[in-house]
């Protein structure tokens, strides 16, 4: 995933039923934040931060989607438990995660495995990748993404 390239298309199930597609957001800026697992501490803080800033993102003409490999039912429990106000998308096949560079080798407690790399992608209204954040640290991240989206 490199800045300036056309964002890969996707069509995935989302919380509340229905699907989310890249074309749903044509002509608008879009933030895609990829998180490892619903209802874990870091992922919860990140989703709450994006929810807290939802109105500011809307004022900046920017939609926000959270994406993980969790099933839709898990996404819905996560949304309801923490009163999240942003759509959550399920990519159980990892196709979108791989296309956006958010799936790869991770290491924990001395073992390596494949999983979701905490990544955020800002897609411009032109459908091109405007900015990519890799190895995201949660604290202050949503604010940084908002600043970038506002400056586009």
Automatic annotation (TrEMBL):
Signal peptide: none annotated. Its EC number is 1.11.1.24. InterPro entries: AhpC/TSA, Peroxiredoxin_BCP/PrxQ, Thioredoxin-like_sf, Thioredoxin_domain. One of its GO terms (biological process) is cellular response to oxidative stress. The keyword Transmembrane does not apply. It is an enzyme of class 1 (oxidoreductase). It catalyses: a hydroperoxide + [thioredoxin]-dithiol = an alcohol + [thioredoxin]-disulfide + H2O. GO terms for molecular function: thioredoxin peroxidase activity. It holds the Pfam family AhpC-TSA. Keywords: Antioxidant, Disulfide bond, Oxidoreductase, Peroxidase, Redox-active center. Residues 1-152 form the Thioredoxin domain. GO terms for cellular component: cytoplasm. Monomer. Thiol-specific peroxidase that catalyzes the reduction of hydrogen peroxide and organic hydroperoxides to water and alcohols, respectively. Plays a role in cell protection against oxidative stress by detoxifying peroxides and as sensor of hydrogen peroxide-mediated signaling events. Belongs to the peroxiredoxin family. BCP/PrxQ subfamily. PANTHER family: AHPC_TSA FAMILY PROTEIN (PTHR42801:SF4), THIOREDOXIN-DEPENDENT PEROXIDE REDUCTASE (PTHR42801). This is thioredoxin-dependent peroxiredoxin. It comes from Bradyrhizobium neotropicale. The lineage of its organism: Bacteria, Pseudomonadati, Pseudomonadota, Alphaproteobacteria, Hyphomicrobiales.
């Amino acid at each position: 995933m490199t800045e300036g390239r056309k964002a890969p298309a996707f069509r995935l199930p989302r919380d509340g039923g229905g699907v989310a597609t890249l074309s749903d957001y044509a002509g608008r800026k879009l933030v895609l934040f990829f998180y490892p697992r619903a209802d874990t501490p870091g992922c919860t803080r990140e989703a709450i931060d994006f929810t807290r800033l939802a109105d500011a993102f809307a004022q900046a003409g920017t939609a926000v989607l959270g994406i993980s490999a969790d099933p839709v039912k898990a996404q819905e429990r996560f949304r309801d438990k923490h009163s999240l106000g942003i759509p959550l998308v399920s990519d159980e096949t990892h196709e979108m995660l791989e296309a956006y560079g958010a799936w790869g080798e991770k290491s924990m407690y001395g073992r390596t495995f494949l999983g979701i790399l905490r990544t955020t992608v800002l897609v411009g209204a032109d459908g091109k990748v405007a900015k990519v954040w890799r190895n995201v640290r949660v604290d202050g991240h949503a604010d940084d993404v908002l600043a970038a989206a506002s400056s586009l």
